[in-house]
Prior knowledge:
- The complex is a heterodimer of chains A (181) and B (738).
- By secondary structure, chain A is of the alpha+beta class.
- Helix content of chain A is 17%, strand content 25%.
- Chain A is globular, with a radius of gyration of 16 Å.
- Helices cover 27% and strands 19% of the residues of chain B.
- Mean pLDDT of chain B is 94; it is low at 1-5 and 7-27.
- The complex binds iron/sulfur cluster (3 copies).
Amino acid sequence: xxxxxxxxxxxxxxxxxxxxxxxxxxxxxxxxxxxxRLEFREHGQYPDVRQEIVPVQCMHCDNPPCATVCPTxxxxxxxxxxxxxxxxxxxxxxxxxxxxxxxxxxxxxxxxPEKCRFCAGFIEKGEQPPCASTCMNDVRxxxxxxxxxxxxxxxxxxxxxYQLAAEKGTKPRVFYVKRGG
Amino acid sequence: MLISRRTFLKAGALAGAACAVPAAxxxxxFVRGAAEAPVTRIPSTCNGCSTNCALWALVKNGRLWKxxxxxxxxxxxxxxxxxxYGVAADVxxxxxxxxxxxxxxxxxxxxxxxxQAFKEIADKxxxxxxxxxxxxxxxxxxxxxxxxxQMLLDEIGSANYITHYSTCxxxxxxxxxxxxxxxxxxxxxxxxxMLFCGRNYAGGIMPGAMRKIMRAKDRGAKIxxxxxxxxxxxxxxxxxxxxxxxxxLAFFLGIAHxxxxxxxxxxxxxxxxxxxxxxxxxxxxxxxxxxAAELCDIPAAKIREIARELAKNAPAxxxxxxxxxxxxxxxxxxxxxxANVIVNALLGNFYKHGGLMPAASPKFGKLTLPKRLxxxxxxxxxxxxxxxxxPTVETGRGIAQHMPDLIAAGxxxxxxxxxxxxxxxxxxxxxxxxxVKADLVVSIPVSWNETSVYAAHYILPEHYYLERMDxxxxxxxxxxxxxxxxxxxxxxxxxxHDTRHLLDILKGIAQEMKIDDLYPFTVEEEAAAMLxxxxxxxxxxxxxxxxxxxxxVKPGFPMKDGKPALGTTTGKVEFTVGAFKLHGRMGVPVxxxxxxxxxxxxxxxxxxxxQPWHSHSVTSNSPYLMAVTKSxxxxxxxxxxxxxxxxxxxxxxxxxxxxxxxxxGETRTVSKRVAVKVTEMxxxxxxxxxxxxxxxxxxxxxxxxxxxxxNDFAPARVEPLSGGCxxxxxxxxxxxxx
Lengths: 181, 738
Ligand code: SF4
Ligand code: SF4
Ligand code: SF4
């Protein structure tokens, strides 16, 4: 069984939003619904200033609060690590939207929550998610952590990683490269 | 409904995202119906900017589904930026022009048949040529695909093929051609030290260049970015040096002075391959790093340090040759370009790996067409290359921004505007609107852009790029790559509307003008003829998406009979340009102050640049890309925090921006309101606006009146040496509120 995850090196991100729009086309989303966003932040004072850009999307948590609060089990965690939403079971109560500490759920025009799907259906065929494959700066590596030869497994061995809001105990499957200093 | 956003990094809330029905795709039914449908992959080249990234269009049930980059293509290495996706999705944008149109009043148009439009245009054109000569006919274009229109101009006898380059980068091409006989490109892959000034590959994106830069960074090359703004490239550079806007020439001269005075330059290279070194040095021997520092706001010690580091890593070190930012927008732009050539030559990096290399380009074939009897051409209407007007401006590019003057003077009577929107992308739109006064104005666009709405008498819509085949293109240039490559557009979709290919539009007009057989070929035939000497066919091109030739470009200064053989008079790199010496000017660059400078608490120099998800006007009506703008408040004008504090302006506040436009005895005040982004990432003396906003065509519903555009505040001036438009020589006053 695969164990899908993503490793994001935010220091390489130049904020182009290609990941967002590539994903929108893959999933035929309307312009206002998007599965990944960027967080921009400045540090310091002119002229000693630095910019940080952090891509954020569904963390496919191993301990997903969105699934725990879902009264109909519409949100569920698959054995390969994907957290998905069964639209037929969803009653549109939006508990999951509130429960998600990463604020990555959006509600579509039919009142159903949407979010990053880790490209279910495509990755099983060996395809890369377009948010990863379109990135000119190689910010994202997606793959199978159980396969020691996958690009993500190899890269995870060479870097230190951290997770967003790790203290919430959600155990995200999206890891970030830790930079010194 | 609105979703309020929390952020992890701090509580600076991002914009809420409204969920709406899709503007372009009926995605639900599409996904359901197409789940099992086969996917076809058709190669094309992106039309989101001028890079020509090679892509595969994936089509399901006759609808565009998604795009993938072609991995082999050197300009994008399999990657595409946001603009690519947004512009492709715009094939379904309801704001496209769906059939030929004829003006019936102010912003009023009625449909007209293609046949009738061709007939009326041909009649008017023939009358104008008979009465006023063909020299009053002009073709105004972005550039590229010039062949078809050039053939019509040759046939009637007009020299007026005018490109948008004078609003973009002509100072650079002009200086490099005259000084080095060619445009060299930076060899990022093999460089150890890279100095980028006013060039932001991560904003005006070229994905292949960014990949090379990031790989270079990974292997330890040093990257220095000089820019008044902490641009996207500066974000990933080793150093960002905020320069006082408009003073790059001082910085370059300071570097050159350090290299020469400290004897760090490549003396052997200069001795053998440079002409005019003494003239340059005599004119600049007093322009020390200290002198430069006073002007450009970068400490002298830093200027010397950069010069020394460049020299230490030379020849695998370069000052990137640059593009739009510095190369049209200052009074000193031509001198900036000259100084750029000089700094690189002092490093001896010409035709060296890791330094500057020539572009690789395939040797395309040509259709053999019957020779035609052509009339002698009259003078150019725009004055480019004309003795007493703009003798040193490149005639291959011309001057685009003063067209209304040419029309008012009766020099242009008939105007075609193709794949270009000067009403939005050239200075002073109110002035540009006067184009409508020509006897005949034909716009050939895909969308209801400003030029079509306010200036055109006829609008002849072209097929969208995904709907048409275009002849193969070389992708060499701007960044070094050893092997010639060709990319090409194949039609991925059936035309959605009653549009035509440019070639068929020109055929239609020529036929009605009774010019027989001017275009006796199809695009397929032309493409096949071009590919033949490369051993390729349309089929191989369609299968590969990108063709690469094995003949590599090799380093080594061009020599002939043991002598330097650049395309210049001396065969050497010429530090002095004889043609520039007219009217008592210098042939070498010397410090040229900006035309205007801000004073007082409320004055700023207005500068601009690209945001990574917009080009100029072509992307500004894309629902996907404007949604990105909304998410990130992308249309705000940047202002340094210290300056904003003095004016009482806080992040997100509305401000009024004003400029006085003085042009040929006319004075007007322009006043616009815009939201301000207060930031530490900008030099205090300027405000910065992203270049893709301020649309004023009411028929472009998505981009209409979002943000402001730098062109709103600039007069349509002409820099005399290269024809540039100097739009960063503008001082605006800013005050809080309305
Ligand atoms: S595509 Fe890459 S560089 Fe661009 S915003 Fe996304 S993660 Fe950042
Ligand atoms: S990130 Fe949010 S939506 Fe995704 S699995 Fe975790 S809690 Fe659920
Ligand atoms: S993994 Fe797939 S669904 Fe998730 S953001 Fe990337 S492209 Fe979109």
